[in-house]
Design brief:
DUF4268 domain-containing protein, alpha+beta, DUF4268, single chain
Length: 146
């Protein structure tokens, strides 16, 4: 077990190492839609690349999710075949969001440095596909919140 301070230091080292190994400006929150952004997630047991719709306005969240869901076959066939759609995803803090995401399938722990390199490759191969999808269908997705 790691102390809270040790765990925080390891998490910081993980993200700094990733940024140095793969320097690139990612889209992330620069979608220009409030509470709608891409994320890298890594914790003690899993890693994911996500598109989170976090709006507290449930109607807006549902409209955005449904707009992307209407593109499900395209996403799966052209970009991310293992994508998961979860309209009612609950974060660790209890907040409900909608999440479209890809789970890293290999064994991973942010506390195990031996698992980092493969996870970095997963991040570096998956996020660009998500971004390509976004750039191709951005105008269509935005129609949900106009």
């Amino acid at each position: 077990m790691f102390s809270r301070e040790e765990s925080a230091k390891i998490r910081k080292e993980f993200w700094v190492s990733y940024g140095k190994s793969f320097p690139r400006k990612w889209l992330l929150y620069n979608t220009k839609i409030k509470d709608f952004g891409f994320k890298f997630v890594a914790d003690r047991k899993t890693a994911e690349v996500t598109l989170d719709i976090e709006s507290s306005d449930e109607t807006q969240r549902e409209l955005l999710f449904d707009q992307i869901l209407s593109l499900k076959k395209i996403i799966e066939s052209e970009y991310l075949p293992d994508v998961i759609f979860d309209k009612e995803y609950t974060l660790d803090n209890g907040k409900k969001i909608s999440r479209i995401y890809i789970v890293y399938q290999k064994k991973f722990s942010i506390h195990n440095k031996d698992t980092w390199a493969d996870c970095y490759d997963f991040f570096n191969n998956t996020m660009p596909e998500f971004e390509l999808f976004w750039y191709e269908y951005e105008d269509y997705i935005r129609q949900a919140v106009v």
